[in-house]
Write a structure and sequence with these properties.
Blueprint: H1 3-24, E1 31-35, E2 38-41, H2 42-58, E3 63-66, H3 67-72, E4 86-93, H4 95-99, E5 106-113, E6 116-124, E7 129-134, E8 138-141, E9 144-146, E10 161-163, H5 170-179, H6 193-201, E11 207-210, H7 215-228, E12 231-233, E13 249-252, H8 255-264
Parallel strand pairs: 3-4, 10-11
Antiparallel strand pairs: 1-2, 4-5, 5-6, 6-7, 7-8, 8-9, 11-13, 12-13
Helix pairs in contact: 1-2, 6-7
Length: 268
């Protein structure tokens, strides 16, 4: 995939945001429960359709797996292990935030080739920021290359990070509750991956622990973070892959910080 292709995808994403997300924000859009605690809205559905159509025009012949389509038919995710590249699409990461009128939501796309993310676009419509990355090509925000400097993990209380607790296993919850006093406040700013990964990249956070690892939530941000110098690793230390749906994923400023945080939380 060339840089020009990714630029075209980013431009298409911004166009969809201008058609759907921006005019419907804070306009009383209602959500409905698609599974316990999980909401979907017309914004999710309309944007997913337009994004899929746009990707078909830019990269004809490549499969597109949207979050809503995969929620209805999880077998679609088998394409992540196929020989041909496939697009993952999250048309509205942070549906609850959008419905509540919070600007902290995003559109996220990832191009996955044989289980490895090779391209990513994350657009935050209300903040007007677009992040892109290609494997081996760095991470960019609106034409500016981003680099994440290592954090200083020598003092856990000095690290700025959080833990998303909703999907923690009983064992992980017990370990974290036994060790969280070693850290500062572990409450994340948001629950939106499309906001939290960029926060780490830009130095506004040092780490965030996720437990549920749906591919469309993490494939885009993990590549952005890795190409900027950070890491997204499993509790045992292996790098994140979108074709691996095991629980537990730590996004961190650098490998040393990741090791220290995981040990500090009692997860290694």
């Amino acid at each position: 995939m060339t840089g020009a292709d990714l630029d075209a995808v980013a431009a298409m994403v911004r166009k969809v945001a201008a058609q759907v997300h921006l005019p419907l924000f804070r306009q009383g859009v209602a959500g409905e429960e698609k599974s316990p605690g999980e909401l979907v809205s017309r914004v999710d559905r309309e944007a997913e359709r337009l994004l899929a159509d746009g990707l078909a025009d830019i990269t004809p012949g490549l499969a597109v797996i949207g979050e809503e389509a995969a929620s209805a038919d999880p077998s679609l995710l088998g394409a992540l292990r196929a020989e041909r590249p496939v697009w993952l699409v999250d048309p509205l990461d942070g549906t609850l935030q959008f419905l509540d009128g919070s600007p902290d939501h995003a559109i996220m796309l990832a191009l996955v080739d044989r289980g490895r993310t090779v391209g990513a676009v994350v657009h935050q419509p209300q903040h007007g920021r677009t992040y892109t990355a290609e494997l081996g090509g760095g991470t960019w925000r609106d034409g500016v290359r981003l680099h994440r400097e290592p954090a200083d993990p020598s003092e856990l209380t000095a690290l700025n990070g959080g833990v998303l607790r909703r999907f923690l296993s009983p064992e992980a919850r017990t370990a974290i509750e036994a060790n969280e006093s070693r850290f500062g406040d572990l409450t994340p700013l948001t629950t939106c991956a499309g906001v939290e990964y960029p926060r780490i990249i830009e130095g506004r956070a040092d780490f965030l622990l996720f437990w549920r690892t749906l591919a469309w939530d993490h494939a885009p941000g993990a590549l952005l973070l890795a190409e900027a110098g950070g890491v997204a690793v499993r509790p045992e230390g292996t790098a994140y892959r979108p074709d691996d749906d095991r629980a537990g994923l730590l996004a961190a400023a650098d490998a040393a910080t990741a090791r220290t945080v995981l040990a500090g939380l009692g997860l290694r």
